[in-house]
Design brief:
Layout (H helix, E strand, L loop, with lengths): L1 E10 L2 E7 L6 E5 L6 H11 L22 E8 L35 E7 L5 E6 L6 E2 L2 H4 L4 E4 L8 E2 L11 H19 L8 H11 L23 E2 L1 E2 L2 E2 L5 H14 L6 E4 L8 H13 L6 E5 L3 H6 L5 E7 L2 E6 L5 H13 L8 E5 L2 H17 L9 E5 L5 H10 L3 E5 L6 H13 L3 E2 L7 H8 L5 H8 L5 H8 L4 E4 L2 E4 L4 H14 L5 H13 L9 H14 L3
Parallel strand pairs: 2-16, 3-14, 3-15, 8-13, 13-14, 17-18, 17-19, 19-20
Antiparallel strand pairs: 1-2, 1-4, 4-5, 5-6, 6-7, 9-10, 11-12, 15-16, 21-22
Length: about 550
């Protein structure tokens, strides 16, 4: 089975959504920021194919808890089980692939689809129907829905290590009769041998009460076990030697549960996996995704969510589907463009910036120094403003130098709120900057024309900070090398520390130019330390200096949604 589209109305955090899944990829990974309703999408699919007549629904499952608006979930799929294709079943409800808008969705070729609609109104009673545009809806029973191969892997894989009604083990054998017989036999044996004499003091009380109220007691009153043939509080688990498998690690349980779900169906199943990475080490994640991909011929479809950059980086561009939710409207966006050159560029930056695809807002940084500097700004906000970039769902992305606007453009097209942090030392980039800001109505943070970040910092910071910033560069370079490069510009090394003895605007600019050329701070950790010095002395920088204006502009952009 393969799900091709999903429509959702008024379900939990989703007011309305219409999603088309690509049929060219059997792996679909839903990515995006927290609370973008990725898990709700999986839950909607699970409910639409619910294999039982009973489904526990509460008022809180309605969007905004408004039960006046029905929950409606409609899932369309292909590779339909043959048992459902008969005329007396749903053969007359088969649809064509173009089922979204036309009134007549009569199938015209061998590729046919079936749509199931789940409707829940204010009485909280679910109703499942097969629908098409040509006929009145027809009810589908839970037994017919059981023919649809849906496996669900969430945060409770331990349930699949125990024989129970909701365990995947039931797909391999029906334990109900076996367990009932065993429980009954064991309980009868226990009843015959149970020593409950300490409870028999109640016998005298029962006899006295009987006599008092005219009830004749003819025999001895004793306490015995009573056998209930309907239920038992005990459970039958799967053991490894003497240890139950549900005591294994979460990751091991999850992997076993996935395997059981995949292999439990004769038909190709759809496997829903919420937060694939939970309990799994990175090497297991990579191995698992490759196993899914390599076993593509023998399986159906895997729809999964993730908050892990490891998962994002491991997926191909055709497997990723970005989820956004704005005021209850959930949309998804594929990353493929159909252009091989563009797709290769995007794939490269998925590997380079996987974390950025999991955020809401992105600061695209031209280089590693800028990324480190943004971390310093985040440190400052956390320390002095009690605010962090994470509060607004913000992260950084590496713009890779000259590709900075190409990277920023791609993120903006994918629906992310983007700004750019860059140097101003290449005149040609100023044209790109203006075009980018105009097209996406966003901001670019940079310096006075002709300056890099290093030059602007050394130009605008007070003289007393120059030795501190030079000391940072010693982490990467030798003292003598720095001395040789800066001696002509008033820097000396006295008593194991730098001294700036000829302070002037011209000397500071020259030192900044040298630091840029020699790459003193071209590392994220060094860029962060470089920025920490600036931010901790921000009040010492004149308010009309470009350095302070830019830093305060970035902080305003970070906190603008607060």
């Amino acid at each position: 089975m393969l799900i091709s589209s999903l429509k959702i109305e008024n379900f939990r955090g989703i007011k309305k959504s219409s999603i088309v899944f690509p049929e060219t990829s059997k792996i679909i990974c839903l990515i995006g920021a927290g609370d973008s309703t990725k898990s709700t999408i999986l839950k909607a699919i699970e409910w639409c194919f619910w294999p039982s007549w009973s489904l526990s629904v509460t008022d809180t499952d309605f969007n905004d808890c408004n039960t006046e608006n029905n929950i409606v979930i409609e899932t369309t799929f292909t590779d339909i089980p043959i048992e459902l294709l008969n005329i007396d079943k749903f053969g007359l409800y088969l649809r064509s692939g173009d089922f979204v808008t036309p009134a007549n969705d009569e199938p015209v070729d061998d590729k046919v689809y079936l749509s199931i609609r789940l409707t829940i109104n204010g009485d909280l009673e679910p109703h499942w129907e097969v629908v098409c545009n040509r006929k009145e809806a027809k009810q589908i029973s839970h037994k017919d829905r059981q023919l649809l191969c849906i496996g669900v892997i969430g945060q409770s894989s331990e349930k699949d290590m125990i024989w129970s009604r909701n365990s995947i083990l039931q797909k391999y054998a029906d334990s109900k009769g076996v367990m009932k017989e065993v429980f009954t036999t064991v309980m009868r044996e226990a009843s015959a041998n149970a020593d409950l004499r300490e409870l028999d003091d109640i016998a005298k009380t029962v006899a006295q009460v009987g006599k008092q109220f005219g009830v004749k007691i003819n025999g001895n009153i004793t306490s015995k076990l009573m056998i209930n043939g309907i239920s038992s509080t005990s459970a039958v688990g799967v053991f490894e030697n003497q240890a139950p498998l549900n005591q294994r690690g979460l990751g091991s349980q999850k992997l076993i549960s996935m395997g059981l779900n995949i292999n439990a169906y004769v038909e190709k199943p759809v496997l829903l996996i919420d937060e694939l990475e939970t309990g799994l080490e990175p090497y297991r994640i990579r191995s698992l995704i490759n196993a899914f991909r390599n076993d593509e011929v023998n399986r159906g479809q895997i729809i999964m969510t993730t908050h892990s950059p490891v998962v994002v980086a491991e997926c191909s561009i055709s497997e990723l589907n970005i989820v956004h939710n704005l005021a209850g409207i959930t949309t998804t966006q594929l990353l493929t463009t159909g252009n091989d050159i563009k797709d290769k560029f995007i794939q490269r930056h998925i590997r380079l910036n996987p974390e950025a695809f999991l955020s809401r807002r992105i600061i695209v940084c031209e280089g590693k120094t800028e990324i480190g500097f943004i971390r310093a700004i985040d440190n400052y906000l956390g320390k002095h403003k009690n605010y962090r970039m994470a509060y607004s769902g913000i992260t950084t992305a590496f713009g890779n130098g000259e590709s900075v606007f190409s990277v920023a453009t791609q993120f903006a097209k994918c629906g992310y709120d983007v700004c750019v942090f860059m140097d101003s030392d290449i005149p040609a980039k100023e044209i790109e900057k203006a075009e980018f800001c105009s097209k996406f109505r966003t901001k670019t943070f940079s310096w006075d024309i002709g300056n890099s970040i290093e030059e602007q910092v050394f130009i605008d910071t007070p003289n007393e900070l120059v030795p501190e910033m030079l000391q940072i560069a010693c982490i990467e370079s030798k003292v003598q090398q720095i001395m040789d490069r800066t001696r002509l510009f008033g820097v000396e090394f006295v008593n194991e520390s730098f001294v700036f003895k000829s302070p002037s605007d011209a000397n500071r600019k020259e030192i900044g130019a040298i630091s840029k050329k020699d790459g003193w701070y071209k590392r994220i950790d060094l860029g962060e330390k470089f920025g920490d010095i600036v931010l901790e002395n921000l009040e010492k920088i004149a308010i009309d200096k470009k350095l302070r204006i830019t830093i305060e502009g970035i902080m305003e952009w970070i906190t603008k949604y607060d």
